[in-house]
């Protein structure tokens, strides 16, 4: 890894060990799961057993026969305190508890409250719900037709101007259609020497945070506190206040550490339900999901991507059409954002003059899909980078050479018209090629007969979610010690440490001496959410501004007492001089929102679609057993452009963690269904990678770069190493065995059947 | 989950008494790794659990007799099997198998008796013990009886164990120069339950195979000893062709089923490949994968 050396007075760029490490490994860190308050009731959710149906009746009498059951509430109870109890970040389509209809197996229909969680769980099984079953639609391609409609009417939240045209639309499952057009694709296709068209599919998977979702609502006289494992405390407060018709300052949201988030714990998940239940029961209510229930709460979009490319006689890509269907499940959640914000990168990091994109967010009767590490990008890269290799192969060109010829170089604009400034697309590609010795002759030998070695690479990119706001407060106490208040959630990614480094660097203290206040919306200021690798850039700027602000105030204070901050040895001395004793504070505030220009509604064009680009790529060497279809990853290289790293060690673990997560999604993870019911909703049947599944060699490369508008030259990194993993493996398998897998996951059985089919075809 | 009772007998006789009724809500547990899964998913709702932990002291010994035969107390944990010197010397295949059986947390508490009586075909220990001709000593209300491990299973999660009957001990006859292997194929993670498990044992007398064992599990509804494949091998000189023939027969005679791990077409092909490779490994004395 090539990073700036540690220097004595610089805090940024130093591999500071995690600030929260000792607290976590000693078992002292608190999580919502550990919390309990006097008089607390445990909630258990009664879930729909049908994929689509009308609720005819709910009989809860059996539950009350169990001793210890305090309450059972349904959608109509919720309506007593919230007349229109629908929520969601993009559409107000999700009821706190089902009203009249259910839309997927697992949808919350009722909730049982008891003093004991096991009593609540047993009682939940004694509640009988009668449904009139309706036809259901599960597949995103079928959902394009309005034969079965999941929601009678579309209800966009109104927060997004580009969803306004969907208000009141009926007889459709399309929650958002996003279109982009650049140049004249029709003409270019007509002129192309070769046209290639392929279809790729990706499967529905789940985040599997090892700390399942959990929330606890405590009601006071006219306020409420919600303790929740959430990635978006500010959003939870706003949305709960909206639902209840309260002012925001009556709702306090507190978030301790999270045991993983990965996008699962965004927006509202359990918070509205515990808030309503606590108000109805007039008691604190805690809801802790099981691992199984998480599969019915939020997932990653399955997708179908049809991609068509036109290449001229010189091997240049001149036209591309992308049609992407996103299986959003029963509630839109943030799916429409995935459809648009990720959709516009669907043509890949290639310099193509004529491009069109049609990207559709679709409702189906599956568990809802939302944000998951990569926010749609891994599904897109899976398709466009497999497609790139397929074109290269058809043309008889080396896949790297084909990429070199067509890749976006320098400041060239991407499909939206926004320049790829400070995006090391070439840098990442070349680093992978160099590490793999792509053009070299020395390649490893297979370990035995029937084994074959192959290698592949892939590269992808992502825009930041724009425009979003972050606010931070830095307080210097009278003894000179420093406190940082922010609503960024440290869910394991190390944000507390990185943000403290920024404060320390500017204020001139050691990172370890900065106290970080974890989210409490009464105390920590607004932040849009911890998502989409936005914190380093957005919150990083807000923290920088707050630290600079407090430093300026300290300088003023020094001046006012006839001193200079630069020569003051102990900051506490300034306070003593100013206030006559150890008293007072200096408070700095920073607010940041990047520049942004909405895309043209007709063409999708904007020259400021994102404040920065994230680039990530993967190179893979693998060995496949052509008899069994089993393959082993011998070497995996993950390279990313993340600007200048604030903390190289944390960056490296972000790269390896992201790559491993995507490796699971590539090789075996898959939610399986039977009539809308998930059949493998447990860690016994849904396996995630363990230590023995890590590739033999894994190298994580930081490609030297500088993000000119980033805090200390940095930008986000949490997702970048997910981008290239799936297609790099598929490309390496093709290289090894000559078979092309176009559907995820790439199981040994899929490889086996492909090899057998090829042999039969040849024989 | 409703409340339930846990009783901890300290003698096997008392444990048998407690289990004798055959009440479906009453079950024994030792490591509890399987029963906890069943309870969490609601597949099993206990009235009373009979903990066998109090029997550990008396029933977890591992010993070897003068001829090299081994006795393993049913309460021996899988990690004991993994680390025990006698096991490593006399039946190294057992110790090797443990390395990729679930994870260290499971192996530290799961017991040999539990692994044999659970009846889930997706387990690693039963096929290996079957290939070693191991015999389970069962203790029950009507006394003691011996059942070869290969005959313990009657179907998917079904065993010959009668109500109140417990596996008390496992007896493995001397290896007598036989070489045994176990090959495990998983379809998801490395530490997953097997999709296909193949155990084999070969004993050579001069240049001929004097006895062979071929066991297929996980791909089938219950562990299967494939005697037809053993017959192909017995009396023959070990060769690539003979192993391939036996493997084809083994696959043809395996009652392979579809499940979440894979299709029966795929698993049948894998049985053939794995038996062929396993016989080669056993012959060459290679370390099982």
Commentary on this structure:
The complex is a heterodimer of chains A (763) and B (289). Chain A has 763 residues and is of the alpha+beta class. Chain A folds into three domains: 41-136 and 207-294, Aldehyde Oxidoreductase, domain 3 (Alpha-Beta Complex); 299-465 and 600-762, Aldehyde Oxidoreductase, domain 4 (2-Layer Sandwich); 468-592, Aldehyde oxidase/xanthine dehydrogenase, molybdopterin binding domain (Aldehyde Oxidoreductase, domain 4, 2-Layer Sandwich), CATH 3.30.365.10. In chain A, 27% of the residues lie in helices and 24% in strands. A seven-stranded mixed β-sheet of chain A has the order 3-7-1-14-11-12-13. In chain A, strands 9-18-17-16-10 form a five-stranded mixed β-sheet, sandwiched between helices. A four-stranded mixed β-sheet of chain A has the order 20-25-26-29, with helices on both faces. In chain A, strand 22 (482-486), helix 14 (495-507) and strand 23 form a beta-alpha-beta unit. The longest helix of chain A is centred in the last third of the chain and has 26 residues, at 535-560. Chain A is globular, with a radius of gyration of 27 Å. Chain A starts with 20 loop residues before the first helix and ends with a helix. Residues 1-7 of chain A have low confidence and may be disordered. Chain B has 289 residues and is an alpha+beta fold. Chain B has three domains: 5-53, Uridine Diphospho-n-acetylenolpyruvylglucosamine Reductase, domain 2 (2-Layer Sandwich), CATH 3.30.43.10; 56-172, Uridine Diphospho-n-acetylenolpyruvylglucosamine Reductase, domain 3, CATH 3.30.465; 179-284, CO dehydrogenase flavoprotein, C-terminal domain (Enolase-like, domain 1, 2-Layer Sandwich). Chain B has helices at residues 12-19, 33-40, 56-59, 78-83, 85-90, 92-99, 104-109, 112-117, 125-131, 227-233, 240-253, 264-284; strands at 5-7, 26-29, 48-51, 62-64, 70-73, 135-140, 143-148, 153-155, 158-159, 166-172, 179-185, 196-205, 208-217, 224-225. Chain B has a five-stranded antiparallel β-sheet with strand order 4-5-10-6-7. Chain B has a four-stranded antiparallel β-sheet with strand order 11-12-13-14, sandwiched between helices. In chain B, a hairpin with a 6-residue loop joins strand 13 (208-217) and strand 14 (224-225). The radius of gyration of chain B is 19 Å and the shape is globular. In chain B, 48% of the residues are buried. Chains A and B meet through helix 4 and helix 19 of A and helix 12 of B.
């Amino acid at each position: 890894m090539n990073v700036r050396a540690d220097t004595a007075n610089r805090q940024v760029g130093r591999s500071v060990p995690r600030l929260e490490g000792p607290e976590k490994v000693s078992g002292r860190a608190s999580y919502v799961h550990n919390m309990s308050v006097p008089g607390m009731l445990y909630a258990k959710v009664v879930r729909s057993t049908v994929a689509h149906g009308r609720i005819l009746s709910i009989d809860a009498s059996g539950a009350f026969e169990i001793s210890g059951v305090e309450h059972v509430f349904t959608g109509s109870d919720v309506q007593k305190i919230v007349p229109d109890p629908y929520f969601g970040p993009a559409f107000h389509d999700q009821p706190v508890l089902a009203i009249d209809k259910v839309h997927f197996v697992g949808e919350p229909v009722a909730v049982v409250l008891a003093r004991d969680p096991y009593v609540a769980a047993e009682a939940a099984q004694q509640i009988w719900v009668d449904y009139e079953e309706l036809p259901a639609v599960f597949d995103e391609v079928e959902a394009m037709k309005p034969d079965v409609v999941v929601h009678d009417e579309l209800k966009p939240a109104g927060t997004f101007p580009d969803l306004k045209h969907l208000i009141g639309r009926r007889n459709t499952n399309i929650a958002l259609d996003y279109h982009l057009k650049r140049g004249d694709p029709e003409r270019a296709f007509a002129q192309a020497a070769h046209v290639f068209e392929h279809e790729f599919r990706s499967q529905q998977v789940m985040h599997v945070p090892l700390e399942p979702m959990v929330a606890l609502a405590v009601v006071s006289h006219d306020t409420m506190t919600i303790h929740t494992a959430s990635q978006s405390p500010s959003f939870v407060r706003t949305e709960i206040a909206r639902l209840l018709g309260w002012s925001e300052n009556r709702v306090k949201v507190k978030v301790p550490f999270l045991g993983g988030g990965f996008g699962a714990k965004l927006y509202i998940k359990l918070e509205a339900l515990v808030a309503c239940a606590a108000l109805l029961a007039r008691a604190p209510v805690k809801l802790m999901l099981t691992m199984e229930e998480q599969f019915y709460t939020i997932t990653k979009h399955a997708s179908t991507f049809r991609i068509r490319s036109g290449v001229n006689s010189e091997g240049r890509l001149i036209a591309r059409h992308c049609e992407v269907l996103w299986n959003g499940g029963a509630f839109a959640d943030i799916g429409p954002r995935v459809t648009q914000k990720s959709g516009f990168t669907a043509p890949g990091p290639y310099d193509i003059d004529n491009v069109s994109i049609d990207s559709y967010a679709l409702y189906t009767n599956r568990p809802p899909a939302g944000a998951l590490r990569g926010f749609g990008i891994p599904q897109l890269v899976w398709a466009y980078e497999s497609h790139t290799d397929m074109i290269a192969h058809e043309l008889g060109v080396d896949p790297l050479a084909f990429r070199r010829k067509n890749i976006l170089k320098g400041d060239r604009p991407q499909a939206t018209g926004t320049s790829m400034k400070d995006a090391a697309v070439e840098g990442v590609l070349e680093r992978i090629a160099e590490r793999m010795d792509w053009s070299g002759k020395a390649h490893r030998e297979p370990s035995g007969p029937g084994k074959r070695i192959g290698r592949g690479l892939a590269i992808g990119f992502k825009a930041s979610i724009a425009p979003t706001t972050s606010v931070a407060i830095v307080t210097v106490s009278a003894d000179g010690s420093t406190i940082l208040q922010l609503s960024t959630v440290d869910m394991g990614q190390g944000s507390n440490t990185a943000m403290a480094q920024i404060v320390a660097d500017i204020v001139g203290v050691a990172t370890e001496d900065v106290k970080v206040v974890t989210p409490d919306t009464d105390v920590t200021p607004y932040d849009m959410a911890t998502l989409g690798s936005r914190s380093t850039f957005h919150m990083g700027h807000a923290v920088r501004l707050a630290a600079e602000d407090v430093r300026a105030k300290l300088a003023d204070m020094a001046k006012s007492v006839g001193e200079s901050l630069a020569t003051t040895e102990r900051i506490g001395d300034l306070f003593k001089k100013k206030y006559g004793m150890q008293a007072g504070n200096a408070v700095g505030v920073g607010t940041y929102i990047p520049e942004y220009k909405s895309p043209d509604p007709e063409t999708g064009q904007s020259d400021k679609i994102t404040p920065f680009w994230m680039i990530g790529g993967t190179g893979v060497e693998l060995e496949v057993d052509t008899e069994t279809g089993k393959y082993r990853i011998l070497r995996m290289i993950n390279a990313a452009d993340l600007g200048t790293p604030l903390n190289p060690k944390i960056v490296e673990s972000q790269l390896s963690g992201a790559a491993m997560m995507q490796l699971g999604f590539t090789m075996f993870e898959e939610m399986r269904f039977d009539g809308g019911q998930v059949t493998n909703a447990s860690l016994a049947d849904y396996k995630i990678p363990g230590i023995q599944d890590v590739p033999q060699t894994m190298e994580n490369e930081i490609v030297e770069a500088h993000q000119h508008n980033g805090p200390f030259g940095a930008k986000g990194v949490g997702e970048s190493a997910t981008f290239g993993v799936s297609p790099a493996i598929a490309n390496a398998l093709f290289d090894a065995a000559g078979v092309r897998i176009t559907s995820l996951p790439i199981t040994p059985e899929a490889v086996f059947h492909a090899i057998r089919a090829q042999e039969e075809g040849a024989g | 989950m409703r409340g339930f009772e846990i009783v901890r007998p300290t003698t096997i006789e008392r444990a048998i008494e407690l289990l004798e009724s055959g009440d479906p809500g009453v079950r024994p547990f030792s490591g509890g790794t399987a029963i906890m899964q069943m309870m969490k998913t609601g597949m099993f709702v206990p009235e009373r659990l009979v903990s066998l932990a109090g029997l550990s002291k008396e029933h977890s010994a591992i010993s070897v007799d003068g001829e090299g035969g081994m006795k393993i107390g049913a309460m021996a944990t899988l990690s004991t099997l993994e680390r025990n010197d006698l096991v490593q010397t006399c039946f190294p295949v057992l110790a090797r198998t443990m390395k990729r059986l679930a994870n260290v947390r499971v192996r530290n508490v799961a017991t040999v008796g539990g692994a044999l009586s659970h009846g889930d075909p997706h387990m690693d220990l039963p096929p290996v013990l079957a290939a070693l001709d191991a015999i389970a000593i069962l203790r029950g209300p009507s006394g003691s009886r011996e059942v070869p491990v290969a005959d313990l299973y009657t179907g998917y999660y079904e065993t010959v164990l009668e109500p109140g009957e417990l596996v008390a001990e496992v007896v493995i006859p001397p290896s007598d120069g036989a070489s045994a292997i176990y090959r495990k194929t998983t379809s998801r993670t490395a530490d997953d339950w097997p999709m296909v498990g193949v155990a084999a044992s070969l004993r050579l007398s001069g240049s001929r195979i004097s006895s062979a064992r071929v066991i297929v599990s996980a791909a089938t509804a219950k562990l299967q000893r494939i005697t037809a494949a053993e017959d192909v091998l017995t009396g023959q000189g070990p060769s690539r062709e003979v192993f391939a023939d036996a493997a084809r027969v083994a696959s043809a005679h395996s009652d392979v089923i579809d499940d979440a791990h894979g299709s029966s077409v795929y698993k049948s092909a894998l049985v053939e490949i794995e038996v062929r490779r396993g016989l080669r490994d056993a012959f060459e004395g290679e370390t099982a994968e």
